[in-house]
Amino acid sequence: MEEQDKTLFAMDTWFSLTAYGENAGSALDAAEREVRRLESLFSVTDPDSELYALNHSGGLAVAVSGDMAQLLAFSLEMAEETDGRFDPTIYPLLTAWGFTTQEYRVPGQSEIDQLLTLTGYALIEQTEKNVEIPEGTQLDFGAVAKGYTGDRLAALMKEEYGISSALLNLGGNVQAIGRRPDGTPWRIGIRDPYGEDMLGVLEVEDAAVITSGGYERFFTGEEGKTYWHIIDPATGHPADSGLISVTVTGKEGAMCDALSTALFVMGVDGAADYWRTHSGFDMILVTEQDELYVTEGIAEQFDVASPQFSIKILNR
Ligand code: ADP
Ligand code: MG
């Protein structure tokens, strides 16, 4: 079967897209256009984006596009469902820690306390057409936009181009369409949070595989403590739950993406509780103590490569 590949830089990372079949080339061209379109809506830094305008609306109600309405509604739902562990309003805190500029710093507690008054998903008012954000509060879809984009690309390529086999890698967030051209499942490598090697390989078909790791973007403070870009919205500090990596897999990329971040904040016990009370996903958790937890739904599909990990299977 004909294979086509495309690499592009978007959403602050490299996308590498592979598709099979007659229409693979035109499907990938359409996918690229869709990525550019979504990026021009959801970029938090581009002064021409829809999100930028919304974040700088001076506290007034603003009419939003259908995509914006959809992603925001979904994000507010996930925030509610995860008890605010996923929160699309932590951007002012992310900025204070220097993660948006790479000028890293540890903010003082009074600065964090002041910024916490500007954050919290309950501050966002969304009606059918309008969104109202208080002055100083800022939305950021950094934890969910790539998953959402993966969903949109998969739907576009399947429905409009008849693609039944493709692998979309959105900066480490993977969206698999169908199976490999030879009919076997896709084999997705999961990165070892402590090194360049592979933690293991997960076999999937028609699913997203999304990892949030403390190793992705971080800095080390003067006292040797590591600070990373996943913020605990309850404290305003980088999450410190004992987890170092969370991989979530399921049919819906946007949900997997939001959850990879939220479960990272929750820690092992919170994540296991959440998994037991919610359907639609499985997960792989790695702790700072080299423990590896895998939910029973994917235990058979996951092959560990790193021998140093002790594996525990989570049951319903
Ligand atoms: P990555 O961007 O490495 O794939 P994530 O999906 O975990 O990893 O997203 C991290 C990004 O999400 C951060 O850069 C920031 O923009 C945003 N973020 C950080 N903490 C939270 C949180 N608790 N809730 C929602 N978004 C967050
Ligand atoms: Mg995420």
**Low-pLDDT regions:** none
Radius of gyration based on Cα positions: 19 Å
Number of helices: 7
Measured as a percent range, the helix fraction is 25-40%
Shape: globular
The main pleated sheet reads as: 9 strands, mixed
The string of secondary-structure elements, in order, is EEHHEHHHEEHEEEEEEEEHEEEE
Strand segment tally: 17
**N- to C-terminal separation?**
40 Å
User: Could you report the average pLDDT, rounded to the nearest whole number?
Assistant: 96
Q: What structural class do the secondary elements suggest?
A: alpha+beta
Strand line-up in the sheet with most strands: 1-2-6-7-10-13-14-15-17
Name the ligand types: adenosine-5'-diphosphate, magnesium ion
The proportion of strand residues reads: 25-35%
Commentary on this structure:
This protein is globular. Strands 1-2-6-7-10-13-14-15-17 form a nine-stranded mixed sheet, with helices on one face. It has seven helices and 17 strands. It starts with a strand and ends with a strand. The protein has about 325 residues and is of the alpha+beta class. The longest helix has 25 residues, at about 255-275. A hairpin with a 2-residue loop joins β1 and β2. Magnesium ion (MG) binds near residues 143, 212, 257, 260 and 261.
Write a concise keyword list for the protein shown above:
about 325 residues; 17 strands; binds magnesium ion; alpha+beta; binds adenosine-5'-diphosphate; 9-stranded mixed β-sheet; globular; 3-stranded antiparallel β-sheet; about 30% strand; about 30% helix
